[in-house]
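can u do me a favor
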């Protein structure tokens, strides 16, 4: 594969992935904005608990096979499809087994997570597990081939399924049931459409030897997935157990909203980045250059976005959630700021480890973080909700330090090179943040905040373009993201 052709393939994939995520991040937040004004915060607390359980079980249904199918170099298509068949049937068996187990002990599970009486709801919600097993393998194969154009059309149609179902049911007073039914409907749609459109179809084929080969990689990937799940949900579990559904709803809805906005950038890049790095895993120079290039592109968008949300968190909360979510403003601000830093310096390190076929490094990073995170969450929760919020946000910097050490020792990417790679973007973002802070002290009001946001955006790009090494990068990014260049 020629370098130029490979680069074009990456950017075309990135463009389709970006358009997909833009559409998703317009429709999904719009749905949440409407639901936040219909459904009480307590109901979102219930949904957070259910999502925690479903995501935990779903982690085992995939068993890391998706990443294996993307990362591994197969001999030919026949070999690839044999592996896909083994992965599919294994996923389906595990998902059905987990669903039966959850249904059997649903009452006990509900009590453990702090929501006794939700056993039946948890059982119904977990029907998603066998449904996702029908689509996960197709998703992996599409991403492996950089075929994000097909995924775009499938995702667009799927986005409007919950809009047509969830909001009407919520208006009828069905509370969290509306969200659960909408989510299940989306999974059914994805399972049907992706199975129909995929070139690969499940066949009656199974090979224990292939399963052993995949497990040698996937067992580490599964361990990593569990540690990521624990990192993501340990705070939710603690809030749900020690505090209340109200605080859980406020917290999880706020952080989820921020993550949704941030993933407008990251979710369009990560699948392409992992696929591209996997293809370059044997060429160290090209591998590192591509990583740095992706980091710069993401930083250009994500750092000013995080600072901007932090500065205008009250406005963001009013627009996204409404007046009944006033307490969410502080959470949204601090989570956005720390998320932007975490994404640039830590989030994509895991993609590097996996692309090198070393998921155990990501597992190590997660364990080293959890050793600090869990005690911090438990101790801070004893001093109240807001102490926990700030402690949870600050401890994320420890995770960045862990990644710095692993990247230096195992991947041979120095901390200084990583920092220098995005230094102009950091400087431009800090200047923008300082001006934004001063503008906020001059006057108040929604109109002035909107005007000052525009001023901050223009100032940011003006300062960034003053750095000669960034001009080409910004212009290239603009061209690559221009919709009329999609092919």
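np, heres the sequence
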């Amino acid at each position: 594969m020629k370098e130029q052709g490979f680069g074009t393939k990456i950017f075309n994939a990135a463009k389709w992935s970006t358009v997909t995520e833009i559409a998703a991040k317009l429709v999904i937040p719009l749905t949440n904005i409407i639901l936040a004004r219909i459904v009480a915060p307590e109901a979102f607390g219930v949904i957070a608990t259910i999502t925690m359980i479903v995501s935990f079980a779903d982690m085992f249904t995939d068993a890391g096979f998706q990443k294996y199918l993307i990362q591994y170099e197969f001999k030919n298509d026949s070999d690839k499809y044999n592996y896909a068949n083994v992965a599919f049937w294994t996923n389906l068996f595990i998902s059905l087994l987990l669903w039966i187990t959850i249904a059997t002990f649903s009452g006990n599970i509900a009590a453990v997570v702090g929501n006794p009486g939700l056993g039946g709801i948890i059982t119904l919600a977990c029907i998603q597990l066998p449904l996702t097993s029908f689509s996960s393998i197709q998703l992996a194969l599409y991403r492996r081939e950089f075929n994000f154009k097909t995924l775009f059309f499938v995702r667009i149609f799927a986005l409007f399924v919950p809009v047509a179902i969830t909001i009407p049911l919520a208006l009828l007073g069905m509370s969290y049931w509306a969200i659960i039914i909408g989510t299940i409907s989306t999974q059914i749609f994805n399972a049907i459409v992706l199975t129909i459109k995929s070139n690969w179809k499940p066949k009656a084929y199974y090979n224990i030897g292939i399963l052993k080969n995949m497990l040698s990689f996937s067992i580490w990937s599964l361990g990593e997935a569990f540690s990521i799940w624990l990192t993501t949900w340990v705070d939710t579990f603690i809030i749900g157990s020690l505090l209340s559904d109200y605080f859980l709803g406020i917290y999880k809805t706020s952080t989820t909203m921020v993550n949704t906005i941030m993933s407008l950038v990251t979710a369009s890049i990560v699948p392409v980045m992992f696929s591209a790095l996997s293809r370059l895993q044997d060429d160290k120079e090209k591998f590192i250059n591509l990583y740095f290039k992706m980091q710069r592109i993401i930083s250009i968008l994500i750092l000013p976005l995080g600072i901007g949300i932090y500065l205008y968190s009250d406005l963001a909360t009013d627009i996204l959630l409404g007046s009944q979510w006033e307490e969410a403003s502080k959470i949204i601000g601090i989570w956005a700021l720390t998320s932007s830093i975490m994404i640039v310096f830590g989030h994509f390190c895991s993609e590097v480890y996996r692309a090198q076929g070393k998921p155990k490094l990501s597992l190590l990073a997660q364990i080293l973080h959890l050793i600090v995170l869990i005690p911090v969450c438990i101790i801070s929760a004893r001093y109240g909700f807001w102490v926990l919020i700030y402690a949870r946000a600050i401890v994320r910097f420890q995770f960045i330090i862990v990644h710095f050490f692993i990247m230096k020792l195992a991947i041979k990417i120095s901390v200084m090179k990583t920092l220098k790679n995005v230094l102009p973007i950091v400087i431009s973002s800090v200047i923008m943040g300082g001006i934004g802070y001063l503008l906020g002290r001059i006057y108040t009001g929604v109109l002035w905040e909107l005007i000052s946001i525009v001023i901050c955006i223009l100032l940011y790009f003006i300062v960034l373009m003053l750095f000669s090494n960034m001009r080409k990068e910004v212009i290239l990014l603009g061209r690559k993201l221009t919709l009329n260049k999609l092919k």
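The chain has a mean pLDDT of 78. hope that helps!!
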